[in-house]
Amino acid sequence: MTISVIRETTPNSATKATNDSLRLKDILQVLPREVFTKNRRKAWTLLIVNVLMVGLGYWGLASAPWFLLPLVWIFTGTALTGFFVIGHDCGHRSFANRRWVNDLIGHLAFLPLLFPFHSWRILHNYHHAHTNKLDVDNAWHPWKPESYAKTPRTIRWFYRLIMEGRFWWIGSITHWAAIHFNWTKFEGKQRSQVRLSVLVVLGFAAIAFPTLIATTGIWGVVKFWVMPWLVYHFWMSTFTIVHHTAPDIPFTPAEQWNAAQAQLFGTVHCDYPRWVEFLCHDINVHIPHHISTAIPSYNLRLAHRILKEKWGNELRECRFSWSLMTQITSQCHLYSPTDCYESFTQYHAKQ
Q1: pTM assigned to the model
Q2: What is residue 20's predicted lDDT score, i.e. its pLDDT?
């Protein structure tokens, strides 16, 4: 089984030599100034449309018969993912020119998701600075077999459940709970910023959940928050793993890592159903976003077309499908210095 690649070729030796000497600034020079230009009308229109879509989802949850709730949960959770993408632009300072506007909208967009804005912003920017760098990238990287062997059995079981057990979609919940609320791991000004974001989220939760329980009961919490929130994390987990994981995408030790190679050829563009791309503001157009986080989401498609004109079939493109997820979750388990990944089956066969 292979990824359903739209366009893929193997670079010849001349192309490979050129790519090996490629620098990130060389790629940036290919992109015109307009892809980096913020457009106030487009940015605020995206936000207004997103608010309307989320409002439509919650209206549906309030009025739909029980047998339509799963469909409305999927719609509402996907629309909430759009809030995340707008907050994501704010975290990269690509939503507005003023920092305080980015911080304010970022906090508001993340509130329904209970995500502390500054902790996510700081940690996510670290991921961009170290994409696909083995043992450093904090968004997703494969465990080394020797590290996996030393890990307590319960953690190994949980990791296998997420990957081999097709429960990849809970991965971002673990990431959210484990690292985004502990401000003591940050230093100086960042610690104060993260503490503020955490307290804002906790304060919101302390008001929102008792109010929701008082007005709708426990079932209301499940219906209006838990289920859409789980759909949001499905997309968060899926976007994260698909955009950086394939059997032939290497995670490179720090001493061998090359920023241009990692950002241009180590990230994946994935086509999803158009309604998902609309509600999630083209977050799937991921390669130009890794070339520069200064590109607003509404300019990503233009930037991607320009990159394709230059590097064409060397860019990684795929289409979302269950066969794609099956391939990733059945093969991409542990780090291999020769084959990029080895599966749990291969690992245990060597023991």
Answers
A1: 0.91
A2: 67
